[in-house]
Amino acid sequence: MTIPKHDVREVFDRAIEHTRRLSPATFDQWFGGVQFDDLTDGVLSLRVQNEFVLEWVRDNFLPTLTEKIRELTGWSVQVAWTLDPALVTPIAQRSEVAPVRPRPIALRPVPTPVPASGPPSPRLEVVRRPPPPDEMNPKHTFANFVVGPSNQLAHAAAIAAAGGGGRRYNPLFICGGTGLGKTHLVHAIAHRVYEERPEARIIYVSAERFTNDFITAIQHHRMDDFRTKYRQSCDLLLVDDIQFLAGREQTQEEFFHTFNALHALDRQIVVTSDKYPQNLERMEERLVSRFSWGLVADIQVPELETRVAIVRNKAAQEGIVLSDDVALYLGQMIRSNVRELEGTLIRLAAKSSLTGRPVDLAFARAEITATSPPRAQTISVEDIQRAVCHHFHLRSTDLTSKDRHKSVAFARHVAMYLCKQRLKCSFPEIGRAFGNRDHTTVMSAVRKIEAQRDSDPQVRAHLEALEKKLAADE
């Protein structure tokens, strides 16, 4: 859903009026240090005088403000902060709402030839807005993207790549497993740029489509047209699933030169993959190096709170009445990826409409149980912790303690790795299960064991023994 600029300002002012009612005196004191910059596609841009004001407003007023905006627009609202001691129009000092003129897009006056009898009279000519990029999903916008610890960096980097503030990285390399939101972010970037700069030349392609275009250009002797399209007539290049260029040496060569040409012109490049650049197989080293020039932002399996928020957001989009207990149950049962989570919700809604039954907890449990594989996963984080402790002759409390002895730390890293690989838990969830450790600590441990498994036969033997034990227990 796109809201005109003048309507967006009205939405914000209504939300501010609602928020001020909580405590008018306190509101006026703190919002004298806050300025409204923009509200576009679910991203609220606020300018604050200092970090103290930021923290107070964020902790005391922001939940009410963003909830009201969500109620008025249906957007999932995120906030982009900017520190600026010299505010021009603090919110609390505005006595009236200043109307914001919408950007003229559709019509413009065109003079007609001067008649003999007097001055020219203007007429209106329709200015056709260029069509949006091909294959863009209208629902994949920033407003509909649910942000959590597992995808926060990628989301912020995508907003910056679309010109929404913050440091812009070029290229932006977004990596993560299937169905976690990489394509959603790429589409959101295109939607934002198209909304803000409709004249921008945006190209969104999969690696497979780029390859097919390249082959067609060779077959029909149209390489000049191909290179003009991708190198000269392109302001924003979005390439999905770059890993599918693996082994295609000639296509990689062409993409390498395309990348260089756009990068030299400071044209934004965004690439997605299911692997980190250094893990891409049969990919030229010079391409891998260039993918790491800007920012590599990964998306992990969302933690429980984010999964529940995703279910609620999808239900709101599709008009599905969903209770909190059903949303929580779906978030607990579907851990693998966002696509499966949303697909399960749609399937429940479809079955509900056919049978006339409400989507309540009993209905959800019955349907998910009926469609689960015969051998559903039965092991838990605690099972893995027990197996690891038994294997390495440790106490059950050692893995969650602060003990950093080498043998304990290694066993803890192995347990974290197994939780990630077998249960598909998010890094924050694993961190909480291992003594409330930070998700970055878990991420580092998992990557360390992944590397050692490939290079150290002893580590590989430990893992194989544990995996055999866990498989037997299922």
List the helices and strands and how they pair.
Elements: H1 5-20, H2 24-30, E1 34-40, E2 43-48, H3 51-60, H4 62-73, E3 78-83, E4 107-110, E5 123-126, H5 152-161, E6 172-176, H6 182-196, E7 202-206, H7 207-219, H8 223-232, E8 236-240, H9 249-264, E9 268-273, H10 285-291, E10 295-299, H11 304-318, H12 324-333, H13 338-355, H14 361-371, H15 381-392, H16 406-423, H17 427-433, H18 439-455, H19 457-473
Parallel strand pairs: 2-3, 6-9, 6-10, 7-8, 8-9
Antiparallel strand pairs: 1-2, 4-5
Helix pairs in contact: 1-4, 5-6, 7-8, 8-9, 11-12, 11-13, 15-16, 15-19, 16-18, 17-18, 18-19
Q: Which stretches are poorly predicted, pLDDT < 50 over at least 5 residues?
A: 94-112, 121-127
The top level CATH class name of the largest domain: Alpha Beta
- Spell out the CATH superfamily of the largest domain: P-loop containing nucleotide triphosphate hydrolases
Mean pLDDT: 84
Q: How many strands, which pairing sense, and closed or not: the largest β-sheet?
A: 5 strands, parallel
Family: Belongs to the DnaA family.
Subunit structure: Oligomerizes as a right-handed, spiral filament on DNA at oriC.
InterPro entries: AAA+_ATPase, Chromosome_initiator_DnaA, Chromosome_initiator_DnaA-like, Chromosome_initiator_DnaA_CS, DnaA_C, DnaA_dom, DnaA_N_dom, DnaA_N_sf
Pfam families: Bac_DnaA, Bac_DnaA_C, DnaA_N
